[in-house]
Design brief:
Structural class: alpha+beta
CATH class of the largest domain: Alpha Beta
Number of domains: 3
CATH topology of the largest domain: Tetrahydropterin Synthase, Chain A
Helix content: 40-55%
Radius of gyration: 25 Å
Largest sheet: 3 strands, antiparallel
CATH superfamily of the largest domain: Elongation factor Ts, dimerisation domain
Number of strands: 6
Strand content: 15-25%
CATH architecture of the largest domain: 2-Layer Sandwich
Shape: elongated
Order of helices and strands: HHHEEHHEEEHHHE
């Protein structure tokens, strides 16, 4: 049968296979692209990796689990149209469930195959840049309504409402560390170095530098450390003030 160039180009875009191979597969599949893809896969002609250099700026995050154990995956693609599609969203949810059920060891090779399968079906560069499992006595979880930013927080003590509020804080304010003591010394020294240069340019007397540096570092901790951040629901409090005896053990932030 005669195969038009538009159909051949469409198959080539989806698979990365050569024009002659696409034409032959379409002829064997009687013009059906899905059948042609299957034929190319069996022949090993598909080059899904050829799409790997395309920018992936869209995607979704999916959770699976409960407040004791939760898995999260970040699945990214090229366009918002694809990220909102049922196939893409269902795959992200399936991946989160697989990770939760089988753990990291079993998940990697399965996920790689699943991504390649989706690339062939949809025709975009699709990747899984981040995934993980968080476990604890009490987990707080929050995912933004656009499914592009999420966080999981592990608490010692407290209740689920507080835990979820802290997770929301991590999503909204993007802390880099949990507490001031977690900030690497080299990061602190670099901040001090920058502040001192600024104070020098401003003509501040060296005798008061140490006092000013204390305030500058306190501001740095407030912006970068989850415990020290101003609570987004009540700016008269910091996160450490709403814990009511609980302790944040860890947090993970996920972003498309």
């Amino acid at each position: 049968m005669s195969i038009d160039l538009k159909t051949i180009s469409q198959l080539r875009d989806q698979t990365g296979a050569g024009i002659a191979d696409c034409k032959k597969a379409l002829e064997e599949g009687e013009g059906d692209i899905t059948k042609a893809i299957e034929i190319l896969r069996k022949r090993g002609e598909i080059k899904a990796a050829s799409k790997g250099d395309r920018a992936t700026k869209e995607g979704v995050i999916a959770f699976d689990g409960d407040n004791k154990k939760c898995a999260a995956v970040v699945l990214v693609c090229e366009t918002d149209f694809v990220s909102r599609g049922e196939d893409f969203q269902n795959t992200a949810s399936e991946m989160a469930h697989k990770l939760l059920t089988d753990g990291d060891g079993e998940f990697k090779s399965w996920a790689d195959a699943k991504v390649k399968e989706l690339v062939l079906k949809i025709g975009e560069n699709i990747q899984l840049p981040d995934s993980g499992i968080v476990e604890g006595e009490l987990l707080g979880r929050y995912i933004h309504h656009n499914k592009k930013v999420a966080a999981i927080v592990a608490l010692d003590g407290g209740d689920e409402t507080v835990a979820n509020d802290v997770a929301m804080q991590a999503v909204a304010m993007a802390p880099n560390y949990l507490a001031p003591e977690d900030v690497p010394s080299e990061v602190i020294e670099k901040e001090k170095e920058i502040y001192k240069e600024l104070l020098k340019k401003e003509g501040k007397p060296e005798a008061i530098w140490d006092k000013i540096l204390e305030g500058k570092l306190a501001k740095f901790y407030e912006e970068n450390c989850l415990n020290n951040q101003v609570y987004i629901k009540d700016d008269s409090k910091k996160i450490k003030d709403i814990l009511s005896g609980a302790k944040i053990l860890s947090f993970r932030r996920f972003k498309v």
